[in-house]
Amino acid sequence: MIKLNANSKIILNNKTEIPVIGFGVFRIPDGEEVVNAVKWALEAGYRHIDTAMIYKNEEGVGKAIRESGIPREEIFVTTKLWNTDQGYDNALKAIDVSLSKLELSYVDLYLVHWPTAGDHAKGESINKRQETWRAMEEICKLGKARAIGVSNYTITHLEEMKKYVKIPPAINQVEFHPFLYQEELLNYCQQNNITFEAHSPLILGEKLDNEIINSIAKKYGKTSAQILLRWSLQHGAIPLPKSTHRERIEENIKVFDFELEAEEMKQLNSLNQNLHLRADPTNLK
C-alpha cells in the first residue's frame, strides 16, 4: 500500500486532486458552532471540507474558510444538490444559491445528494437523474464546480448513468463503515474509475465499544474512531469524519502513523451487518 500522510491526494478521473481525508459538517448548526469546527479542522491540517445545501450551514463554512487565512485554492470544498432542487433549471439555480451562501466563485466538488427528487427517507422515487446530470455537466463546464459526482448511488444508478453521461461522475459518496461494508459497490466504483467517499465512517458514534475494534485500537494506542478511519483509508475510500469537539477533530486526522495488518482488515470486514444508519437507497428506482 502507498504510504499516506495528511497531505496525500487522490487524482480524480478529471485530473482534479482531492485530499484523502475530509471534514464533514452534517448536523453542525450554522453560526459560531460550524465556524469554530471548520477553523479547528483547518488548523489541525484538514484541507477538505464537505457540506451540503440541506445542512443549512454553508454560510458558516464559507466564513470559516475566509477567516482561516489559508488560501482558497489550498482548500477542497464540496457541497451538494438537494433532492427538491433536482431537474435542469432548478439545479442551475441551486449551485448559484450555494456559491452565494459560501461566498465562493466555485466549489471543488458538487454532488447530487440522493438518486431521487423526492423524500429519500420515505422511499419516494422521483427520477430526474438524467436532466439533473445534464445541469451538473453544465455547472462543471461553466467552472462553478471543478468536479461533479453523486452521493448515495447504488450500482444500478451508476449503470443507468452510462446511458446519458458525457462527463462521468468523479465521486460516489456513500455510507461506508465495517457494519456496512459495501464491498461490491466499492469494487464497482474502483473498476469504473469513480473515487469512493465514505460518509458516516464513524457509525454516528454507535458501535465504538465493539470488542474487535477496541482490541485493535488498544494494540496501536489509538481510539476506536481512528481505527475506523484507517480501515476506510486502507480500502481506498476517502473518509469524512465529523465532530464538534476540538480534541476529536485533531485526533481524527492522526491516522497516518500506523497501518492495519491484513488480518485486522479481515476482522473488521467481518463485522458487516448491512447496517444502514442513513436511509437505504437500494429501492430508489
From TrEMBL:
- Which InterPro entries does this entry report, sorted A to Z? AKR (IPR020471), Aldo/ket_reductase_CS (IPR018170), NAD(P)_OxRdtase_dom_sf (IPR036812), NADP_OxRdtase_dom (IPR023210)
Q: What is a single Pfam family found in this protein's UniProt entry? A: Aldo_ket_red
The taxonomy runs: Bacteria, Candidatus Nomuraibacteriota
Q: Which CDD domains match?
A: AKR_AKR1-5-like
Q: Which residues form the active site?
A: 55 (proton donor)
Q: Which top-level group of life is the source organism from?
A: Bacteria
The NADP-dependent oxidoreductase domain covers 21-272
**Which residues are noted in the entry as substrate-binding?**
113
- The site annotation (Lowers pKa of active site Tyr) covers 80
Mention one GO molecular function. Answer: oxidoreductase activity, acting on the CH-OH group of donors, NAD or NADP as acceptor
Keyword Transcription regulation assigned:
no
Protein name in UniProt = Glyoxal reductase
